[in-house]
Design goal:
alpha+beta; 21% helix; 23% strand; 179 residues; 2 helices
């Protein structure tokens, strides 16, 4: 009888301990969830929660952000511009909204907005263009020596990984094109 009573009093303690252990395991995982989207940014297959537009580390980890006047990632570059950073977050290039407005939304020809002074993979700079289609494009080499063309819209929506194989019409002879 003593043993039964002792087990019966341990069961609630055991259940509470298991629940606490479960909370300890789950809460930090939710806090580190990279799909938590800060400042109203739209989740488009987000891998990194830092606001970068190119969600997959192409070009050796170089990333591009739309930023506000204070340099914070945002969904609208019109008060700030575009910032290209290296894999450690160091700014490599800033293209102001003023520069982008001077070029216009649909130039007659693809127009260079800016390129990094610092060389990147393949000993080439990273360059950002305004395309005649109205899209924006960031070019650079990846760590495997292939040219990567990252094409995006100026609405600053972050683009995640492609879900299917890229068809040959979306590839250049130099490497991969990500839309």
């Amino acid at each position: 009888m003593f043993t039964v009573k002792r087990i019966a009093t341990r069961r609630p303690i055991f259940v509470i301990m298991m629940f606490a252990l479960l909370l300890i395991a789950v809460v930090p995982a939710l806090a580190d969830d990279p799909t938590n989207v800060p400042d109203g940014l739209i989740d488009q297959g987000v891998v990194h929660g830092d606001g970068r537009l190119n969600q997959i580390h192409h070009m050796g980890g170089a990333m591009i952000h739309c930023v506000d006047a204070s340099g914070n990632p945002t969904m609208d570059y019109h008060e700030g511009g575009l910032r290209v950073s290296d894999d450690t977050g160091q700014e490599m290039l800033f293209i102001s909204a003023v520069t982008m407005d001077e070029i216009g939304p649909t130039p007659a020809v693809n127009t260079l907005l800016g390129q990094t002074e610092r060389m990147w993979y393949g000993n080439v700079p990273i360059a950002v263009y305004r395309l005649s289609s109205g899209e924006l494009q960031m070019n650079g080499m990846d760590e495997h020596g292939k040219l990567v063309e990252f094409i995006f819209h100026d609405d600053c929506v972050r683009i995640g990984a492609a879900t299917d194989e890229i068809d040959s019409a979306s590839q250049s002879e130099f490497g991969n094109v990500f839309h």
